[in-house]
Every structure is written in structure tokens, then in C-alpha cells.
Amino acid sequence: MSQPTATVRELIREHYTDLTQSERKFANALLENYPAAGLASITIVAAQTGVSTPTIARMVQKLGFKGFPQFHQALLKELQAKVSGPTERRANWATEAPESHLLNRFAKAVTQNIQTTFSNVPSEAFDAAAQLLANTDQTLFIVGGRITHALADYAFTHLQAVRPRVIHLTSSSATWPHYLLDMARGDTLLMFDIRRYESNLLRLAELARERGVDVVLITDQWASPVAEIASHSFTCWVEIPSAWDSNVSTLMLLEALIAAAQEEAWPQTKARYERLDGLFEQTRLFRKPGSQ
């Protein structure tokens, strides 16, 4: 039996309906305190989660692991991956890289990331998130982190054209309390957070949730801690043969959400686009094809 390549969290979600009641008890305890609840010995883990050691042994085998040691190693590997920096990421790829051109390896990795990302997006959650992004009765706030602020900016540029009442939080977390002042129940916070996860984004999400704000999170395959409190969380596969992670699959998912939000209220959005084009005409910001 080969060791699974998906994260333990993903495997639990994939096989959840096949688990017994006692196995689900352990699975739920692990997901509530992930991955820490599974990092001790099987005896300690069983005692802490209130199930028997045979229950744990059966569940990890259902997930595709030969036994608890392999399951334990997978959790440790995930934990290490969450905190790894550019140097460690490059080392992982360099030791396993086949003897082919970087362009070919890069294209293959990116293509696989996109396919895996979209195959793991629940359609119901996607539709619900798109409805939140399109809801003009409430305000939409958008924020990103050190790397993902570029994605947040991209999202704002497009969604601000799709609908009114869109606010882009600045990259300085010192100003975020000012935005929290105006967050109200029913508003939506679109958030981007990839490894290394930022504690200030988690605290912002917690404070927003306390105010009744729906958090829509776009994160990587290891899942930001924000996923535990988000209304909807989408994981994107990001590993490539580089010291840095790729945002290609993240951007693709974002563009799909933007397109879905646009279709949610197309008549109003169409009229908004036409008014925006009229303003572009008046300001003469863009050259028309064939103009001198």
C-alpha cells in the first residue's frame, strides 16, 4: 500500500462517509485541532480523543495508510511544509527533479496544480461564495497578506467593477481596526492567506466573525488556520519546481469566482460596465483601436 499524496485533512473529508461513528469521533477531534491532535503516540492520541487504539488503526488504514506510523509521519511532513521557507522548498524540488528542462517540469507542475485544485472545489460551496461576493445589499471587504496582497488587489479591481460597496483593506495591519469599525453582520470578507500563514490575518478573521461577517478564504493545500472559522474555504495546490509557491491555480480559482459573481446579478453588472465604459470615454484614459 503506497502512502497517499493528499493531505490527511483532505483524505478525511474524502472518506468521511465511510467512517464508523467512533472513527468519525477521532476524525472530528483531529480536524478541530489539526494537526496537533494526531502528533503524539497512538496510545496518547486515543486517550486524548476518547476512542480506542484499534479504532484509530482502522481509520488510518481507511485513509490509505499502512499503519499509524505512516499516518503520524504524514502529519509531521505537513507541519514541516507549513513553516518551510524558500530555501527548504527549493531543496525538496532539487532532490527529486527529473532530468528534463525546467520549462517542462514547471508546466507539468502548474497544470497538475490547476487540475487538482478545481477537482477539489465543492460546487455548492463555490456557488454560495459567489453569491456572497455578488450580494450588493452588503459590503464586500478584500484583504491579502505579504505575498497575496497582489491577488487581493486583482480581486478588488475586478469586483469593484462588478458591483458597488467593495473595500480593499490596505496592506498595513495597523489600519485594519478602522475597517472593522464599518464591518456589519451579513458583510463578507474575502481573504487570501498562504504559507507562511500570517497571524494578523487570523486575528482579523476572528474579529470579523465576531461581528457576524462571512469570511471567504482562498488558501493553499495545507490550509491557513483561518479555514477553521471561515464560512467557505478553498484550497489551491501551489507547489512548483521553485523556491517559491505558485499562485497560478489561486488566480484561476479567483477568476472563476469573479465570473460567477458577475453572472449572479448580470443585468445590474452589465449596466455598471456600460457606465464605467462611459467614464473611460470621458476621461480618455485608453486609446481606441485605430485612433491617432
Automatic annotation (TrEMBL):
One of the record's GO molecular function terms? DNA binding
Top-level taxon in the UniProt lineage: Bacteria
According to the record, the segments passing through the membrane are none
By its UniProt entry, which SUPFAM superfamilies does this protein fall under? Homeodomain-like (SSF46689), SIS domain (SSF53697)
Domain HTH rpiR-type stretches:
6-82
Record flagged with keyword Phosphoprotein: no
Q: Which UniProt keywords apply?
A: DNA-binding, Transcription, Transcription regulation
Any one of the GO BP annotations: carbohydrate derivative metabolic process
Entry's InterPro entries? Homeodomain-like_sf, HTH_RpiR, RpiR-like, RpiR-like_SIS, SIS_dom, SIS_dom_sf, WH-like_DNA-bd_sf
* Gene3D superfamilies per record: Glucose-6-phosphate isomerase like protein, domain 1, Winged helix-like DNA-binding domain superfamily/Winged helix DNA-binding domain
Does the keyword field hold Kinase?
A: no
Q: Kindly provide the name given to this protein in its UniProt entry.
A: Transcriptional regulator, RpiR family
Which organism encodes this protein?
A: Marinovum algicola
